[in-house]
Design a protein that fits this description.
Elements: H1 3-22, H2 27-47, H3 53-75
């Protein structure tokens, strides 16, 4: 992913996170929102034919890798 794409994604993630915090979500609800948002965006893109089946599978695989890397980086473990 190029730097410009990463910056746009980071801004969108910051926006969703800020909105969630202002709404008073618990930490668990915030984590659930993060997963649901990612799943919803991928599903919507696939339904609207913005992603092919192969792109959808690749995006999910990439997301799993990213989430595991974050877990290991932040906690030192992965359950």
């Amino acid at each position: 992913m190029d730097e410009r794409s990463r910056a746009r994604i980071d801004r969108a993630a910051d926006h969703v996170h800020d909105m969630a915090r202002r709404s008073g979500l618990t930490r668990t609800e915030l984590a659930e929102l993060a997963i649901a948002t990612a799943a919803g965006v991928l599903n919507r893109a696939w339904l609207e034919h913005e992603l092919t089946d192969d792109e959808m599978v690749a995006a999910i695989s990439d997301a799993q890798f990213e989430l595991r890397a974050i877990a290991v980086e932040r906690t030192g473990r992965l359950q």
